[in-house]
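hi! just following up on the protien thing from before. the input was this:
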Amino acid sequence: MAYKCIGIMSGTSLDGVDVALVDVSVDGDRIHFLHGISSPFSDSLRGSLMDLTRNETVNKEELVRMDALMGHLLSDVVEQLLAESGMAAKDILLIASHGQTIGHYPEKREQFGHSTAFTLQIGDGDILATRIGIPVVSDFRRRDMAIGGEGAPLIPLLDTFLFQSREKNRCSLNIGGIANITVLPADGSTATAFDTGPGNCLSDLVIERLIGQSLRFDPGGENARRGKVHDEILTRAMEDAYFQQLPPKSTGREYFDEKFLDFLLGMGRDIPFVDMVATVSCLTPKSIADALHRFVPVNHFPTELIVSGGGVQNLFFMEKLRAFLPEMNVVSSGEYGIDPDFKEAMGFALMGYRTMKGLPSSIPAVTGAGSGQILGKVSLTKEAFRFFQENGGNENPD
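and the predicted 3d structure came back as:
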């Protein structure tokens, strides 16, 4: 028996929303993709979200109204998915929504004797539940951070279910705005996972800065492929403290931002702009390969790298990964029947189901938290409230 669930992912690339309809097994450890849609952000919406993520100070009314707006926009996409798949709200057990990240600050700075590590994702789950009439699980990262974890990455649980093999060590790589890896040892030991550094975020920024012409990203990596990588700049970039930091660790656009790009461009004032695009873009595959060589034990070192996320479409990234990791077979997750655009949305659908079942979804060794946590906040519908009212108190406690 399986339950139909919907997962929603809106990543740090700020390019749009991916929504996946899946079947999740009763025990919450198997998942099957049924249907998915991607809805791109308009230029004006992307600009507004970019302002919120880039600016150190924001207008509080703008922030709270964007939280509400994202709740409605996510509802619009779910309605479209239901229409395309022929499903009614009553057919779906739950919706699990990651939300749009505005800020992720995992550093454990203290104020008044307490850690203020925190993360903020917007897209109000109550609006989504009210509009669609399906219970919603959202805000997945905060529970892990509340007990000292990084709040990321959270997809390694799904990676374990999908890709762990008894025959070979594997690594699942997701390239969104930020890149993260999950190393899956063949001996069945706990996965190693962390954010390696920039995914698409810096390559998108350098395209906007140096090429413009309404380009927001490098289609297929074609501009980067035209340029020459300057190794001395790349070497200096790799000296950044984040790349030396031991896992568990996570990062975001707040770190690999305009200031970081300015640092890189400052070292390349006299080189052709296409060379600078290539050099900045190369930081993504270089930091991924370096993280694998630096932090993964020899006996767990992967022979296969399974890539998902928007970065799988960037030929420059994929070519450089193969060049930096010649010992690995680098393939798209599509080779295993997992659409690279919807893997993360599938992961949050799985986590949402596990939350409703009272099962943990975080992996302590991955996030650095003290224990595995039941993640997310639940927005119940009127029907769900009625169910608990009618069934409450019928069972005697042990």
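The first strand starts at residue 2 and ends at 10.
The chain has a mean pLDDT of 94.
cheers
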